[in-house]
Design brief:
The chain has about 300 residues and is mainly alpha-helical. The protein has two domains: about 55-250, no CATH class; about 255-304. It has 13 helices and seven strands. The radius of gyration is 29 Å and the shape is elongated.
Amino acid sequence: MLFTPQIPTSDAQDGLQVDITGTRQFLTSSQPIEKADRPLVEVLKGFGEILPVCGQETSSLDAGMVDGDTLEVANLNLATLINIGRINIIWVKSISSHLEFDSLHRRLSLFCMPSFCLLNLDNNTPCESILNDFYDDPVLSPRILSSAHPLFKEILLSYRLIFADDSQARSIFHKKEKESARISRGTATEPYLDKLCGEKPRYKSYLPTFGSPLTVSYSKSRDFPYLAGRLSDLQSYIRAQQPNRLTALWYDRRNLLSWYTFWTVLVFGVVGISCSVIQTILGVIQTVIAWKTYQAQLASVQGP
């Protein structure tokens, strides 16, 4: 789940091959067979910076803002990503590609098997040991945060940020993305994906740390120390988008106060104009009737 292995297509290909389709995190797609006797972490690092770095610099657009530490659900929920950012969701099988965003092709990768992260929330799992060794490097991450738990929890929490905290996003998941994830996953069910993305958050949760009601914003430093860089890039892209169609204006609810103000003014304006038009038409009809009545009275007075 850290990467997607690839079966060699010829005898000339030896060593460890991985699938790097749609990802920019891997510097290379293979490691030589000579590294087979080396620690797995060393082999993984040979592919490049495949996992997010704790404390990685966030987007320059976000850094200069007053709320630079804030990740807003209004900007990052699936409904906004699709309707405003016109972003396509690509479901992947490796956590290294989770939340990787290709702004050129407007593609966002999401890990399609969160149950893997849930299983690794317990201590002393093999994957936790691998990640502990991977992050046991002062250049990559402070040693105090070297546990795999923060990364796995952040991945799980990111589903809530993108899906569960917004009703429209939950609806889109059930209508479209649930089936897309199933096709990419190749298995019939993934119960935790349905829970994380399709159910409204409640006080009582099967994940104790996430047992809180709907949230409107998150902290990069507190909630997403590892994934903050990727989420910041995505948020900066969305903030730069300006709707240019009436339908886009309807779906653009990043600022609810502005949204309600705009549509209230528009509705009352349309109603006011309609009333004015109707009043004008009635006035014309009344004038015509009065003129005909006057003509009839004039004709009766003059008589034969």
